[in-house]
Amino acid sequence: MAKAFNSAQEKVLSECPVSYRTIFKRAYTTNRKSLAIKAFCLHCVGYLRAEVTNCSSKGCPLWPHRPYQQGEEDASID
């Protein structure tokens, strides 16, 4: 049986772009911290993946763990 979402989760899901709903549903129904961080970061920057990559909120405790970071090799390319 699928887990029911609470009203706050339903609100976020209704406002979330369809392309990211699976991430949010999985974050709500599993214990995977990486999915929770990904969902939080996407929500924080208005669901813009590039903004997660370019996040400048270095004071955020999740900043070093944010998804979609460029690898070391990518950062050195001009």
Structural summary, described in words:
This protein has 78 residues and is mainly alpha-helical. Helices cover 50% and strands 0% of the residues. The chain is built from five helices and no strands. Helix 2 (21-29) crosses helix 3. The termini are far apart. The model is unreliable at 72-78 (pLDDT under 50).
Features:
50% helix, 0% strand, 78 residues, disordered C terminus, mainly alpha
Mean pLDDT equals 88
Number of H- or I-type helical stretches = 5
Basic shape: globular
- Strand percentage lies at under 5%
Please write the string of helix (H) and strand (E) elements.
HHHHH
What about the largest sheet? Answer: none
Which structural class do the helices and strands define?
A: mainly alpha
N- to C-terminal distance: 51 Å
Which oligomeric form is depicted? single chain
Brief summary of the model shown:
With about 80 residues, this protein is mostly helical.
Write the layout of secondary structure elements.
Elements: H1 7-15, H2 21-29, H3 33-44, H4 49-53, H5 72-75
Helix pairs in contact: 2-3
